[in-house]
Amino acid sequence: MTVYLIRRLMQSAVVVLAMTIILFLGVYAIGDPVEILISPDADQIERERAIAALGLDQPLWLQYLTFLENALRGDLGRSFVFNEPALRLILQKMPATLELALAATLFAVLLGLPLGLWAGLRPEALSSRVIMAGSILGFSLPTFWVGLMLIMVFAVELGWLPSTGRGPTAEFLGLHWSFLTLEGLRHLVLPAINLSLFKISLVIRLTRAGVRETVLMDYVKFARAKGLAPRRVIFVHVLKNIMIPVLTVTALEFGSTIAFSVVTESIFAWPGMGKLIIDSIYVLDRPVIVAYLMIIVLMFILLNFVVDVMYSALDPRVRLQDQRG
Amino acid sequence: MTPPSVESTALGVPPRQAAAAPREETPLRRFVSDFAESRLAVVAFAAFVLIVLAALLAPVIAPQNPYDLAQLDIMDGRLPPGSVGGAGFTYLLGTDDQGRDMLSGILYGLRISLAVGAGSAFIAFCAGTALGLVAAYFGGRTDTVIMRLVDLQLSFPAILVALMILAFLGKGIINVVIAIVVVEWAYYARTVRGTALVERRREYIEAAACLALSHARIVFRHLLPNCLPPLIVVGTMQVARAIALEATLSFLGLGVPVTEPSLGLLIANGYEYLLSGRYWISFYPGIALLVTIVVINLVGDQLRDVLNPRLRR
Amino acid sequence: AEGQTVTIAVGAPITSIDPHYHNLAPNNAMAEHIFERLVQTDERARPMPGLAESWRAIDDTTWEFRLRSGVKFHNGSDFTADDVAFTIARAPNVPNSPSSFGIYTRAVAEVQVVDPLTVRFRTRSVYPLLPTDLAQIAILDRETHQNAATEDFNSGKVAFGTGPYRFIRYVPGDRIELERNDSHWGPRQPWQRVNYRIVVNDAARTAALLAGDVDLIDQVATTDIARLRADPRVSISEIVGLRIIYLHLDRSRSDGTPFVTGPNGEPLGRNPLDDLRVRRALSLSIDRAAIVERVMEGAAIPAGQFLPEGTFGHVPGLEAPKYDPEAARRLLAEAGFPNGLRVTLHGPSDRYVNDARIIQAIGQMWTRIGIRTTVEPLPWTTFIARAGRQEFSLFLVGWGSATGEASSPLRSLVATFDREKGFGASNRGRYSNKQLDALLERALATVDDAAREKLLQDATRIAIEDVGIIPLHIQKNVWAARRGFTHTARADELTRAMDVAPAR
Amino acid sequence: MGGGEEASAPTAGAPVPTHGAGARTPILSLRGVSREFRKPFDLAARLARRLGADIREEVVHAVDRVDLDIFAGEVVGLVGESGCGKSTLGRMVAGILPPTSGTIFWKGRDRASFPPGEAKAAKLAVQMIFQDPYASLNPRLRVGEIIGEAPLVHGLVPAAELEAYVDEQMRRAGLDPAFKRRYPHQFSGGQRQRIGIARALAVGPEFLVCDEAVAALDVSIQAQILNLFMDLRRELGLTYLFISHDLGVVEHLSDRVVIMYLGRVVESAPAEEVFARPNHPYTQALLAEVPRISNRKRAFAGVKGEIPSPLAPPAGCHFHPRCSHAMPICREAAPPLREVAPGHLSACHLNDRPAV
Amino acid sequence: MAATLEVRSLRAHFFTKAGVVKAVDDVSFSIGEGQVLGLVGESVSGKSVTGFSILGLVDPPGRVVGGEILFKGRDLTKLSEEEWRRVRGRDIAMIFQDPMMTLNPVLRIDTQMIETVLAHEKVSEKAARARAREALVQVGIPSPDERLRAYPHQFSGGMRQRVAIAIALLHRPALIIADEPTTALDVTIQGQILYEVQKLCREMGTSLIWITHDLAVVAGLADEICVMYAGRIVEKGPVDQVLDAPLHPYTKGLIGSVPSRNVRGQKLAQIPGMTPSLLSLPPGCAFRARCPRADAACLAEPALTRPRPGREIRCFHPHLVDEVV
Ligand SMILES: Nc1ncnc2c1ncn2[C@@H]1O[C@H](COP(=O)(O)OP(=O)(O)OP(=O)(O)O)[C@@H](O)[C@H]1O
Ligand SMILES: Nc1ncnc2c1ncn2[C@@H]1O[C@H](COP(=O)(O)OP(=O)(O)OP(=O)(O)O)[C@@H](O)[C@H]1O
Ligand SMILES: [Mg+2]
Ligand SMILES: [Mg+2]
Fold first, then answer.
1. Which atom, in ligand 2's list, is nearest to the CA of E97?
2. What sequence ranges are listed for the domain ABC transporter (chain D) (predicted)?
3. pLDDT band at residue A277, thresholds of 50, 70 and 90?
4. Which of C408, D38, D105, D207 could, after both became Cys, cross-link D59 (CB 3.0–4.6 A)?
């Protein structure tokens, strides 16, 4: 465990450091933020003043070192655009994204698990084939396209649900959440469905594959030979085994759900981190881009760690090691 | 000098695994007959072949070269399906804002989408497989370094990596391919390493080592072919993923150039017209994209079932 | 409409509530709700009294402004001449500002507070544009904003101005909430509350309007205008704006420009763009009417100069060139290119309305007269950096004149690049014309409006006849409001709750 | 780490008593051959240890200082329970796995000292037959390729004669050469095992290591393969190291039997001798437990206790926790292998007592 | 003595895509109280399927297509699924071959034992746990309380098999079907298991069907022996008689090919050929192709005959003159 922790920590540190360098160079190479931020009216003198004000007149390595030094102190720089600490900006947006990603993940598990279970237990049934065909669709449909269609149908044509935005929020634990109000929930539905479509399919297929493999296992047959009711065999013996990969993948996918919310957020004008990063890329708001990606990396590292711990908690065979099987 | 074949009496009886199959059963034939078990998959495969043919033959069958600006006329822009353009040309699926024949645009777009999907999957396949095999076969430090790289790559959301790379390299088909390769090689490496680690412990590899065959020979002639099945499955899925990723990137404005639209870009262009009722500009490319990805996924799905040793009976 | 709340969805993010932090149109539009300027502009961008009731030039370098009395900031502080002095001092010095308002205060050498309601500005040289420039500077309160940081505005701590609306809440990238300032000096606003939402995606904005989630949207996508016009639930308001879309030509090198080659891709050894006949051919072969009709779907007017009719410096009768491919071919042949050319046309893909579509259309048109054109739209981020390094030969850009005055485009776009004078800051093609420079310099030193306008018109004529740039069209600014709301369109593109009224 | 350090183990390189073979050079000898499997410490583990974490390196002494001589033409049976290191020993003999310490002599010369060309010849001279008839053949190659690849690559046969050569090898292993173009999955277990044998024979080995070569086969097929082994031995003068946990098979086939327990050789003697007069308590227990057809309605007893984990083998004599004769000394010192009768070696402290 | 179980003309077929596999074809036998029946045969001869048929656990594509399974006079094949479930584990228990696979890796031993108790009896969980503990003691597992809280992977193979036996014993079933339970174990451990099983059956009067391919194991254990070949029972009789005087050429060959029955160093008596595929079984005697005595008569299906009291065989040319093997 200790070794595991240390190994993880060391790896993470290397990853983060490598990330900062790549990011810094990458973002630097994309373009010159001053060109974008400056008012068209500005003359050359004003331009030079802005360059200096943003600290872009220094050599790159010095900028990097300054950044690194500040980052170690938890300061990831100030947004060029908003003139606020990048970290605070992102954290402000985080609840919205987390809420969306959580809702999507919840959808995925609540829908995917039962459907996958059904399809795995009766692979030949028509209903199972329909489920699997549906999951292929869910796999294949580009997120952006689905998003548009959802808006077209449910907001514009039918007018059942709001098209965009987050709706009113209520405060809970010091953060603003929209699932606490009815109107907020209504705003949440479409983007969450949009984001979860892929995950639902993923969970269905994982579950089905897991079930199909597990039911062939001797221990399932043994459980039946013990005279257990089919319900217990399925919901304890089979399900507990497939929950492990399903939950692991779902948890790991949570990270990419957050990342993929970039697309959903920009379609549904959902004021989360994803939209912030897209906007920031458009205006080359370097500190925000770097801070966002750093946070994402840290989040992934954390998530991986949590998944590992979870995995070892769920599957008694596994001790904390440096890799999953 | 040798004893008479002790099993000669049994030679008339086909071995049990091959019971009802044709005599000369090669892995390929067995694979084909297993694959053909699902009618849906066969239909999907046929559709896939058609799509590929349509894409390959686009310059021959497309009524117009949609990439040649001289052939486009902006005055024919946004015509609904079936309209006749200024030059007396009938646009079966309508035109987009530049007066581009949608049918031709879709055929050419398929070309790009498939080329990007297949090209990037192929390069990623080669790179990832080579690295994964090396990692698995040699183990130790090599393995650690390569796999940490894989972890690093996988711990980072694909879409963001691609966005960064494209923002960095700029638009263009080659750049999209590069971005997708960078995003995807790790999947192959991880898959092949997992399989190779299992296969490497198999006795036939030990037998090859015992026969003093060279490392290169063992890796490429013995190890690699046996690691292929899961790779093929990953490969098909990744082609579909690559196509979708390219479409998404193009949609976000970071994909291929507007003058040579892929399906994703056609959809993105038409997307702005959706609300105004000119559905055809994004609807037909959307359908084409959808069918392509679904078809590839269906084929991949069946491949997964056929190639999964654990579900074999 | 009687709900007393208006919800507006705008297409560009507002990045700060601090009115001096970032000189950006959306920020300025938001600032106009909360803060006010000495001089304000009407919907056609003409100056009109704001916090100053009147102003006049006392001599060549001194201007006196008389302030409105009884004006109070939202937190109760009085508005006085001292606040003006404070504001002029603060505007250029906001820390970290990526684009400051210093350019508008630079001409001011000294601010004299004559009495609480009278203030005098001494300029460094003759400077006729002072009132125009001051129309950009939001007035802050010395007591309140003495040491205020940008964040304090965003959090609402010091977001107090004299404007018709008070600040309630700001969620970066998402929304701003405002409520009516009942003690405002001006006409009473019809809205108790304003929800100012940021919806960047065009389709999402239209969808939100159609779904009834918002009452007014700006930057209506050209693709949706026709549909919205036909929709009885929606009314469109539009006006010819101040933004011109034009092509810039590389004039920075004479031994050949990278993206113009012979018909077979061979280098030419000279820059054909230096040849007026080539430039005119390029311009004549563009069917501006077609672009306006097909690409812009009517949301623009073909342009033959920098500014539309009715602005200061507009040249009457200088029409957009007529589409004449024959003449263009002839000119090209005369210039020594009977077999045409091969060019690459660059442009942004995400900056101006339909930017990528426009360059494709131009590509078609040029190809038709023998100039084989490759079109390469780029993301604005990369595009603008490369354009600034003179990496392109022909490229599309736009220019919005915030002041609505011809000196602005002349000074930035076609005047010879000169750091000291602040000329040609956006002259990315490095066009240079001595005669034009001289006229412009004279105009900028002429206080008399009529004389100045004449000089500006002359300069404009030179730039256009010499094809310093190729103007394409001037955009219309288009808003769409839900039934029950009317909106007065503004040439300066600003979207403000003050322009929305309940329909009778 | 591992068990207590024992002083009395036979030293590597010391001449090992042979069973009446006089001065003949063994075709293969092992001297103090060990194989450990360890998971190396990485930086993190070292750091953790520095920080005082209680972590130990995991070391498996799969094979622990084994001395063994095998003479040309001999069949040596290697017996032991699962995990005792039989396969590991076999792999080292076959040259697939290098020993961590100790020396392997091939015809009296250290195999590690061979120049490249000879090393390859020596490697080809020792071939291995594997347990799993399914896993030991590459499923993607045709039978002809499986058998013919190595001879062709090593230039043992010219390409033109390969076909005929492969046919001959197949015939010798009891396979119809007409099946040359088939794939392994088209054969039954017994036939596959024959393919494996043909593959090994195709490079002209002198020595075969058979690792549980018949364990996966049905009884009736097992007999066929065992007969084939015996035929080949006669025809080709092969030497065998025959690894098995089936005492019946070993008894039938071997001239000499070597018994391993947890990585160590505990007894070694001519076959009749072992079955008639087992010396080591473990051997005795093993023989008592083997079910035999002739034993009807017997009362089973079973050696008490579990097989210890090779990760933490008991100190001293590895067998002492399960041994009914265990003495205090057994817990402390590992007994050395010593001759208890001519050609009969055993490692047990009971033999330390003055001769009975 | 009344038979605990009587199987009559049992047929279980698998309807695979390649054709019908007659895995069990006309199998009859019976077993009395406290008796041990050895079911011997080479792989795929249908031993396991016979065992599963008795418990009603033949999975699709397989099905019991005919015959009766009389358990204490009740025909199990007529039971509903729920009634059959109540028989499993309570009246008839089963032990599987691979001890690594029969226990569910993610459930603790106590869970797996207690659920077995609760599946058939309404007792408190505490009582069930006590029963589980008692069963572990019975099979000779030291410190049972601690072991109950462990997971299967913490056990060695022999221990796991003992746990499986303990589970089988929980309800003191009248019949235990053991499907090659020692094949995967070492000789010394196999001895231990055989010892436990033998003891328990004697003590509790449980009947036992011991499935194996190792004649030597049943020799020491069984009262009666059934030899299966290609889905049929080819020879049946008391263990001594069958092993000492096999009547069927197959049984004879089988016994003959056991190395210890041969002179050391001499060639083993071998049965030529290989086990036939059940898919394309030609009509007539399935052993025909490998049988030294086969002739034209064998092209017909041999019927089950009783050449001697207590003996049954299926052969036209049995070794009726006693030959010493
Ligand atoms: N590659 C390896 N890495 C780590 N440990 C190994 C490796 N190979 C073998 N071992 C360990 O070495 C010990 C001896 O293994 P070996 O395979 O030689 O036993 P065996 O006697 O052949 O057993 P079996 O009868 O099961 O084949 C075992 O504990 C095994 O876990
Ligand atoms: N799920 C299944 N699908 C198809 N055929 C099956 C299935 N299960 C068993 N069979 C067939 O039933 C026949 C008998 O198998 P069974 O498992 O009873 O043999 P066995 O005598 O127990 O062999 P072993 O000693 O290998 O366990 C085999 O031919 C097998 O192919
Ligand atoms: Mg082994
Ligand atoms: Mg079986």
1. 27
2. 45-287
3. confident
4. D38
Q: Tell me the average pLDDT across D57-67.
A: 85
Q: Which domain holds residue D320?
A: 28-39+60-292+299-352
How many Å lie between the centroid of ligand 1 and the Cα of residue E81? 45
Chains that touch A (3 or more CB pairs under 8 A): B, C, D, E
> Does residue B312 carry a pLDDT above 70?
no
Q: Do chains D and C touch (3 or more CB pairs under 8 A)?
A: no
Instruction: Evaluate whether residue B303 is within a structural domain.
Output: yes
Residues of A in contact with B151 (CB under 8 A): 11, 15
Reported as a single tens digit per residue, the pLDDT across C243-301 is 999 999 999 998 989 999 999 988 988 999 999 999 999 999 999 999 999 899 999 99
User: Could A33 and C98 be called an inter-chain contact, meaning their C-beta atoms sit closer than 8 Å?
Assistant: yes
What are the residues facing D346 on neighbouring strands? D267, D338
The one-character DSSP state at E301 is P
Say which residue the tokens 């809420």 belong to: A99
For residue B186, the distance in angstroms to the closest alpha carbon of chain C comes to 29
Q: Please give the model's pTM, rounded to 2 decimal places.
A: 0.80
Instruction: Give the domain CATH number at B189.
Output: 1.10.3720.10
Q: Residue E198 is encoded by which pair of tokens?
A: 């033998």
Q: How far is CA C427 from CA B203, C431, C442, in A?
A: 73, 7, 20
Chains that touch E (3 or more CB pairs under 8 A): A, B, D
What percentage of chain B reaches a pLDDT higher than 70? 89
Pocket mutation for ligand 2, best pick of E15, E45, E218 (most atoms within 8 Å of C-beta):
E45
Chains B and D touching, counted as 3 or more CB pairs less than 8 Å apart: yes
Counting the structural domains of chain B, the total is 1
> Average pLDDT over chain A, rounded to whole?
81
ipTM: 0.78
| Interchain contact, E279 vs B19, CB within 8 Å | yes
Q: How many domains does one find in chain D?
A: 1
Strand order in the sheet with E3-16: E19-32, E3-16, E62-71, E74-75
Structural domain that includes position B257: 39-312
What total of structural domains would you count in chain E?
1
Is E221 inside any structural domain?
yes
Is E167 within the bounds of a domain? no
Q: How far is E25 from chain B (nearest CA, A)?
A: 18
| pLDDT 10s digits, E76-114 | 888 888 888 888 888 899 998 887 788 888 888 888 999
CATH number of the domain encompassing residue D282: 3.40.50.300
DSSP labels for C60-98? TTEEEEEEPSS-B-TTSPBP-HHHHHHHHHHGGG-TT-S
| Interface contact flag, C208 A163, Cβ < 8 Å | yes
Cβ-contact A235, A214 below 8 angstroms: no
Per-residue pLDDT band for C501 (boundaries 50, 70, 90) equals very high
Q: Is residue B8 assigned to a domain? A: no
Coil vs helix vs strand at A244:
helix
| Mutate: best of A78, A163, A175, A263, partner C, most C CBs <10 A | A163
Domain span at E59: 1-82+212-325
Distance from CA of E176 to the nearest CA of A (A): 11
Q: Report the CATH number at residue E235.
A: 3.40.50.300
pLDDT at C134 (0 to 100): 92
Residues of B within 8 A of E270 (CB-CB) are 6
Q: Could you tell me if residue B305 is inside a domain?
A: yes
Contact C201 A266 (CB under 8 A): yes
Q: What is the pLDDT of residue D168?
A: 92
Q: Do E195 and D230 touch (CB under 8 A)?
A: no
Q: What is the pLDDT of residue C398?
A: 93
For B239-274, the pLDDT digits (tens) are: 888 888 888 888 777 777 777 888 888 888 887 787
Which residues line the pocket of ligand 1, CB cutoff 6 A?
D 37, 60, 62, 80, 82-88, 245, 310
